[in-house]
Amino acid sequence: MADTAPPLPREKRRTRRKRGEEPAPPGPAPAAPHRLTLGQRLKRDRVMLLLTLPGLLYFVVFHYVPLLGYVVAFQDYQPYLGYMHSVWVGFANFSAAFSEPAFWTATFNTLEIALVQLVFFFPVPIALALLLNSIASDRIRRFVQSVVYLPHFIGWVIIVSIFQQILGGAGVLPDFLGSMGLPRYDMMSDPDAFPWLLTLQVAWKDAGWGTIIILAALLNIDRQQYEAAAIDGAGPRRRLWHVTLPGIAPVLILLLILNLGQILSVGFEQILLQRDAVGPDAGEVLDTYVYYHGIKDNDWGVAAAVGLVKAVIGTALVLGANKFAHRLGHEGVYRGADR
Q1: What is the C-alpha to C-alpha distance for residues 27 and 171, in angstroms, rounded to an integer?
Q2: Strand ranges inside 36-153, DSSP E
Q3: Can you give the pLDDT at residue 335?
Q4: pLDDT band at 221; cut points 50, 70, 90
Q5: Using N-to-C axis directions, what is the helix angle for 194-219 and 101-120, rounded to 10°?
């Protein structure tokens, strides 16, 4: 009779089964995990839900409930009559806006400014975040971060005044050019330079603030990837291209999609303060168009119609860009149904 191997102790048999070297003994299949009901999930997460309640109420009260006011776009709205008694005019307000040359001038100026800011301002916080992330000293990095964050908390009135003192007709730059025998240049009143002036102001004010999310994304990149790339002979540029940028790509795509949703909102207060210096032909945008028609001229229906067009186009851009991000393999703002 052939010799049979002695049975393995229980602990060794369990270890071999965990490694896949020995099949598990036959028996009933493990039961599927119990699925919690909606009430059980609400009870489990009640603390987190209570913490999100103030933010939810803010968006409901100040963002979603006011959407009902878009009914004004289809009425000859009179404030003393209210929504219920104002005359319903259908799409007449849209026809009036689309037939007015000032609307198309404002639309062109808005798109021009938005395109310049998207191309030249959007990369600025990315580059600044990469520079801040490369500073070895934590103390110096925190100091620089504090300095570049501060302009975000300065109002547009003060910022426009600062730029007026530097770039205006009696500012530092024209005086310097005049002292050098060169023609004086007033950038603040140059219509051709207006989109670039706005982009420069936005970059000075919000570039540091925009680095917060990008720096958080940089911290989530595994340091071992940089070490492995360095061992393989990758220099700083190749590590940036093959490790850093792919690591923050989902966040950059998310920020780009959100910026596309606001492409027709290029800064009301900033432009209103400087519109008269360059004239309506260069300084009128959709936000100021709505302001002057709705508040100044009491043409509430046309102003609401233009605002509704802005909202629809912004929503369409977000949905389209998000769908395009899904096709590229990224999540975007939200996950698709097939992901």
Answers
A1: 86
A2: 75-76, 87-88
A3: 65
A4: confident
A5: 40
- For 88, phi then psi, to 5°, come to -80, 125
The CATH number assigned to the domain holding 267 equals: 1.10.3720.10
Distance CA 72, CA 293 (A): 14
Range of the domain at 233: 93-327
- Among 307, 273, 316, 309, residue whose Cα is nearest residue 289: 307
| Residue 256 maps to a domain | yes
The pTM score is: 0.78
Which residues in 178-215 are b (16+ Cβ under 10 Å) and which e? Answer: eeeeeeebbbbbeeebbbebbbbbbbbbbbbebbebbb
Record the tokens describing residue 264, joined without a space: 């027709």
Average pLDDT rounded to a whole number, residues 174-199: 90
What is the rounded CA–CA span in Å between residue 73 and residue 300?
8
Q: Which two tokens stand for residue 155?
A: 């109002």
Place of tokens 């100091």: 143
Please name every residue paired with 75 in a beta bridge, in sequence order, or none if there are none.
88
What CA–CA distance (Å, rounded) separates 336 from 339? 5
